[in-house]
Amino acid sequence: MRIDPRSAVPKSLTKPHPRGTRRRLGPRHPFVLALSLLVLALAAAAPGVQGAEGPLGSEAQESQAVTGPVDFDRGVRLALVRSPFFTRSSLEIEVKRLDEKDSKFDLVPPVTFRTQYYVDQPSDVRGRPYSLSFLSTNYNPVESYFSLQARKLITQIAVLAHMQVISEGIRKLAKMFLEMEALHQAAARQDNLIDLARQNLAFLQKRLHLGAITSLEIKVAQQELAGAQAEKEHIIYSQNRLRDNLRAFIGLKAGQPLELDYKEARRQVLGAFDKGAANLEQAKTHSYELKIAALKKELQNYNILLAKARLLPSIFIGATSPDPLTSNSRGLFFSVGLDVPVWDGFKRLRNISRQKTIMRQFEAETQEKEMGLADQWQEAQENVRAADASRKAARAQEELARLKERQSQIRYHSGGEPLAVYLDGRKILAEAQKNTFLKNLDYDLALVKLRQLSGDLDASYVDASSWRQ
């Protein structure tokens, strides 16, 4: 709906003015047009501000229970919608967008309406006992424009910071799913050790009845069984605690059911990631820290321009009715003026030098972050190589333990070795298998960190461009 600016002006203000008086505010005056545009802008902005509450999500959705199995892929998508760990940085984007809208409205000078009523009036003065005025504060259009551009950059920085939080959150979720799978394997291996300890205890008890051993060996075997059972309880406790952490991270309340599916966690977490194809340039292109540093430098350029713009004179406009105590004139009289800074102790000039110095600080910070990223990338690659070597050594030890266990089994069945030796061989094999999957976990976690640095991990779930709308 388009509004005629003249409809906002009272008819009494559009009558011909008497000869000898200053020109009163007419219907086509620029001030009235500006005032009408301001009203239209405020009306258009109201729905936008109210609508900003929509993307924050509803409490009803957060309180809904999650049904069905949750694997890593579904866990990430649930966390992106429900997780409280992403809420703060997401809300920061909304705050910066509201600040950006404020800067858009600063392109129009703010206007203040003031009225003054005289309760007591001199007897020799005839006319209305009040005065009206529309006044604007000092307005620098150049400064307002550069402030708006700076606010847009600040919003983009908030978006990138949110993306950085999401990237770290996805890596944390991947770590928890891999650990859940490792704990599941550890529980199975521990059950095997408990079974071996029970077989060993039963064998020794039979020999005790025959008088072949002493009760001390029985106590040792009982202690081994108790230790194996205590280790199983510790694994169960770790599983429950990690499950609670996953429940909280996804956004579920304490006590809400959560069915986890971590059987294919490694395949989902690592996907088709090729560690040989990833390189440092790919990490630099993805790095949110470097992108934020580049935007900060661009933002500082606007801060320098703002410092220079503050040297320009400010504009102020107004429309005031005459003072009824000194004049019998009627109507509103438009005025415009300049506010020119004359002496401020050269603070404005020093501020320009200050902002240029800060720019050099940002340039040094960017170089520091680039070197830090290179160090992180090299460290991540070294961790992958070291973990790969460790898991290969663990596999070799497991294979050796398997061969020895097979050897002791053959000797036991042929009567060359007692049962205790055979059980010890099986115990050594179970310990070697446990060490192998722990080394595999270290390797997988090192790969996850490398995949995160390359940008391949969070790019599979988040489109950064969708947040810049």
Query: So, the CATH homologous superfamily?
Result: Outer membrane efflux proteins (OEP)
> What is the name of the CATH topology?
Outer membrane efflux proteins (OEP)
Overall structural class, as computed from helix and strand content, comes to alpha+beta
Order of helices and strands: HHEHHEEHHEHHHEEHHH
General shape = elongated
Helix content: 55-70%
Order of adjacent strands in the largest pleated sheet: 2-3-5-6
Largest sheet at a glance?
4 strands, antiparallel
| Name given to the CATH architecture | Up-down Bundle
- Helix segment tally: 12
Stretches where pLDDT falls below 50 for ≥5 residues?
A: 1-35, 37-60
Average of pLDDT: 83
The level-1 CATH class: Mainly Alpha
Based on CA atoms alone, the radius of gyration comes out at 38 Å
Relative strand content: 5-15%
Q: What is the count of β-strands?
A: 6
Q: Indicate how many domains the architecture comprises.
A: 1
Report how far apart the termini are: 26 Å
